[in-house]
Amino acid sequence: MVLAVNAAGVRVARVCGCQQVARSGHRVSAARIPKRYEHCTLDSYETGFRGANASMQQAHLTARRFVEAYPVETDGKGLLITGNIGVGKTHLAVGLLLALIEEKSAQALFYDYRELLKQIQHSYNAQVNSTELDVLKPVFEAEVLVLDELGAQKPTDWVWDTVALILNTRYNDKRTTIITTNYPDLPAGGVGLSATQRATREETLGDRIGERMRSRLAEMCVRVEMSGADFRQSAGRARFG
Asked: What is the model's pTM?
């Protein structure tokens, strides 16, 4: 603690800045952000590379506004970030997470959708000293949750039930959920189409998580649509030196 004088001229004790930095660092560590994305801040999000378009800039602006509005104006709502591969959805989501931790002292958690489902399945192994609830409790209780690549796992009844449990629990508790997905936020399709048309049509978020959960997301999250060239195939391509 340090002694200071407030606006009214009264001497008060406040938490030292070094403690605030330490606490912020602890919250970042607890968020489980993958090493590959630890550098992904809102400030480092690139919209100037060749192939970028206005939707990326608008998404970045929306992310900034979301952080400023959190938590009073956002009132438990989150973001559903959709777009094709390589437009920076995960970067933007992690940047949001870090900004909310550092600027709003939020308790946050990052999970890749497929990894989370695998951890839940692994908990069913009798030789593992954990339960489904052990895995899901921090997911349920995180003040802010980033769920990356929703719909990436092949849909089954168990997958749909698990997604429903996670999203409904967070919806009922009015906890903020930030979701990224490569699938367009459109209804499940294929009705009335020929077998050939169904085989060649692009899958939608409705196909991957079911219409009931897609409807729930419409209540939980503001949709942010992104499009553009794949950053990884241009400016982000792997190089030596």
From this structure: 0.83
